Amino acid sequence: MAQPIMTVGKAISMLRSAIVNARIYPKGSQMIESSLRSAHQALESCLLEATPIVISDIQGKLCVNGKEVVEARDFRPFLVQHEVQSLKLFKGLEVNEVSTLLDGLGKKKNQLDNHKNLGEWLKAQGANHVQVEEVEFVEIKKGEVVIQQVLQLLEQSAGDTSSLVSALEESLQLMDQLPDEASKKEVRKKMANHLAGLPPQQLRELFESKVPESVEKSGLREDVVQALSRDKLEETLEEVNKWYKKIKEETHSEFEVVEKLNGLKSFLGKILHSPASKTVPFALYEELLNGGLLEEIPAGVQKGENSSLLAETEQLLSLPSEGLLEPSVRKRFPELLKALCAMALDEPLQKLTDKVLQNLQNPAPVARETAVKTVRLFEETLAANRKEKPFMQIVGALHQMAESESAPDVYGEIAQSLQVAAMELLVNWRFEESALLLATLRRHSREESPIGQKKKQLAAKAMRDFSARGLDVICADLNAPLKDRQNGAYRVLAELGEEAVSPLVEAIKRSSDSRARQAAIQAMKRLGPSIKDPLLRQINVGTPGDILVKLIPLLEDFADVSLLPTLTGLLQHPDADVRREIAQLLANVQEPRVQNLLTGLLDDSDPTVQTEAVRLLGEMRVKSTAVDFCDRLLKVAPVVQEEMCIALGSLGERRAIPDLVKLLQAQGSFWKRIQKTPDAVRIRAIWALGQLLPDDTAQRTLAKALRDSNPNVQRAAQSALARLSIPARNAA
Q: Do 536 and 566 touch, CB atoms closer than 8 A?
């Protein structure tokens, strides 16, 4: 007779049985050793055929090497509880590694000896032929997916030109996988737009560095020139002026000066092919022309009012400070300030900033409101042009003014200016200064003041506006491999408090990046008790299941009776994973009603939810639940029967013996449509009867099982009878 073929599905089912055995039998018992070795042999046999074996949770289905395996679907909950996307087993897998894997999967996620996840724990235990991955695998089919991957590659290489060049080559290889020219063109456009936003120094290095032949021939650098915006071109030309001055000051050899200036001229000549070059202020070109970097003003650039920039600035400085608030003057400030920054005329820029700040002391509220609005124009332009000293001077003045301002309209403008400044500081990784501004706004949103409720509302609105704008940046910092950036992001989040919850939940909902989702979840964990109420408002039956299974565990630290209304409603959610998470959270609530809610889940439509409810009720050790288990024992799916047997044995209720005996002795019949009890369930029933000894009925049933045709059933009965210290042959 031919030996049955061992399939991967059967091997995984044996692995699952071994995990359950490890949970119910004492360490070192024969049942654990037998199931462990059987699982190892089965997996070893499968690995000889193909390696690795990849066990994945894909859209709620258990798949092996990309194909659904129905016979092993009961293994999936072990992956779900550890948030594992894929489990890889490699050839050479040893018995002790399988034992370690059983131990890890049998634990809860928070029981892994302070390790962050199952993968880290397995690595620490030396299970080198087992790998755990928590990333999402997406098959490359559409241009949108390639764009996402390309932009991630480019973002990861920020600040390092050699890494950027490598990322460009890899990105072009990804682009070549696309089937049509339209998709390739779209990817190139996105790449060019991203590169056109690089800092001027890295932009220059990109044009001057030697690049792989594939990048050179792609014409990507020419695309970048075409994508340069006016603001980026002005910023870059401003830097060219600074590089020119630095070369003249620091280079003593005339030959070196010429060589370096030629390199700078070459770079300048390339970027001036940008269509945006015709929109750059004439004064900026005039400065380059005077320095010898340009031989002539580019065609199409018109000489305008900026040519008399210093004269105009001097005229403004001669006015009284209130004159700077006139509408005609305020209208000129954006272009004037940008030109002063581009020309590196820091002294007149500082004088103009000092003069406009004098208006913040005006006794008239209307004048102060106009002054703050004007100062905000300065703030935004100075930040965009990286003029740190006057920018921080403005921020400091507004921060101080916020404490004493008593006019609601004026305070509203100040609050918005502070949140904009906090955002600018955050983008530049100045976390402490950003958090300091937010701390003030947060305090104002809670304390009493001369303008009362209005000030609270305005401060709270500024906090909400910052949260909506800043959460993407914060999540990016949380994902960064640098500890300083992660800690800084957490510092800012701590000041946002409950205002961060809604945007963080929104970020989790819309993000397709699993790392970004995880960063947002970790951020909410760090916020502490303040997240409870706003998080409850975000959780309802209409929320998608994959989002809820991430959010519900965040409430574990606040599990009390106040959660019951929300959790009771979520028991009707269509997603079984959600109902299972709710059951686990309910078990932490100390309230008599919880038992009835969990008992109701015994009749859930999904066997995995039923199984979880049985396990939780068993762990609660409420003996009255034995009746509920017995009523359903012969009607539920085998996987639920196994868990019920474990629970009944643990509860020690002898009223369960007749039902366990029926379950053990049930024989299949085609005519009566009775399904034979699976051997795995019979073994659990034998274990449960062993826990209920001494009892004559249980003992007779176990003695009969010693003669069963299945050796595993025989060994289970022998182990159960050993509790009576009766030799198995006498019991028989």
A: yes
